[in-house]
Amino acid sequence: MQSKERPGANDPVMPLAERALIAENLRLALDEIETGAGDFASVFNAVAFQREAIRTAHRRLDRLRETV
After folding, report:
1. For the residues of 12-67, what is the DSSP string, one character each?
2. What is the tens place of the pLDDT at every residue in 6-58?
3. 10-38 burial, b for 16+ CB within 10 Å, e for fewer?
């Protein structure tokens, strides 16, 4: 059962769009490490992609905690 105020808040399964966003950011991070120039900018970009994936997951966890 989903909350009308917060769609998906009561759903224990992460929506496909959120999973896809996290997966894409992690793929971009890995690609940056594997194919980047190996310089500081490449590492910085990879970490930025990882950070965005973590933020997305944490937002979902926060919404789940609000329902408990």
Report:
1. SSPPHHHHHHHHHHHHHHHHHHHHS-SSHHHHHHHHHHHHHHHHHHHHHHHHHHHT
2. 555 556 678 899 999 999 999 999 999 999 998 999 999 999 999 999 999 99
3. eeeebeeeeeeebeebbebbeebbeeeee
For the chain, how far is it from start to end, CA to CA, in angstroms?
A: 14
41: helix, strand or coil: helix
Q: Residue ranges of the domains in the chain?
A: 16-66
- What would the two tokens of residue 13 be? 């399964």
Q: How far apart are CA 40 and CA 42, in angstroms?
A: 5
**Does the reported pTM lie above 0.85?**
no
Contact predicate 52/32, CB 8 Å:
no
